[in-house]
Amino acid sequence: MPEGPSLVIAKEEMQLFIGKKVLAVAGNSKIEKERMLNKKLLDIKTWGKHLLLCFKGFTIRIHFLMFGKYLVNDQKETVPRLHLQFAKGELNLYTCAVRLIEEPLDEIYDWSADVLSDTWDPASARKKLKALPHIMVTDALLDQMIFSGVGNIIKNEVLYRIKVHPKTKVGDLPPRKLTEMIKQARQYSFDFLEWKKEYTLRKHWLAHTRKLCLRDGDIIVKEYLGKTQRRTFFCNTCQVLYT
């Protein structure tokens, strides 16, 4: 599943279409595609894992699910979920969820929850976490209402960075570790963004999909944890299980 930084990159690659009129619409999504015909794409925003194509009076929300893909000025042989044709270029979206939003985005999205947003609010994240003392940190980091844009890779790497075991409950975290988790959720997201642009992301993974811990040489354990049963990689030796 694409994480927040990947969506930021997608937004940047699609900037050439902002202010341009949609000349043709196609695809197998079930939304009212004709709403976009002959309309200008006014802006492209992201909120966590949501890509938002903004038109006057409505927005098209794209969620790339587990295996979604986008192509700018290129096509796959399969039928896209959504195809937008512009005078100079095209945008094709595949294997994604497409939804039409009528409401103003500010009524739907808490922009301060997006870890890559200029309006990110760590104090708000801390307050939300304090209200969920009984959930594991592995679930907390994937909660998009708290850490919008954080995905499984970022979760695994953040917990390894701060030396916290993924089965630790939020309420059992020492205050300094809670602070570290909140800080690193944002910091690692920006690191992810930088490495992704450099095509060096995998080289920087310290826990995710690795076999041995680089700190102590112990085995990196893989388990499916939390309410979503996502792959979790961690070291039982240096990542402390707080109780």
TrEMBL record:
Signal peptide start-end: none
Domain of life, source organism: Bacteria
Positions of transmembrane segments: none
Ranges of residues in domain Formamidopyrimidine-DNA glycosylase catalytic: 2-87
Keyword annotations from UniProtKB, A to Z: DNA damage, DNA repair, DNA-binding, Endonuclease, Glycosidase, Hydrolase, Lyase, Multifunctional enzyme, Nuclease
Reaction(s) this enzyme catalyzes, per UniProt: Hydrolysis of DNA containing ring-opened 7-methylguanine residues, releasing 2,6-diamino-4-hydroxy-5-(N-methyl)formamidopyrimidine
GO biological process, one term: base-excision repair
Pfam families according to UniProt: Fapy_DNA_glyco, H2TH
GO function term, MF aspect, one: DNA-(apurinic or apyrimidinic site) endonuclease activity
InterPro entries tied to this protein: FPG_cat, FPG_N, H2TH_FPG, Ribosomal_uS13-like_H2TH
PANTHER family (alphabetical): FORMAMIDOPYRIMIDINE-DNA GLYCOSYLASE
Protein family: Belongs to the FPG family.
Protein name: Endonuclease-8
Organism per entry: Flavisolibacter ginsengisoli DSM 18119
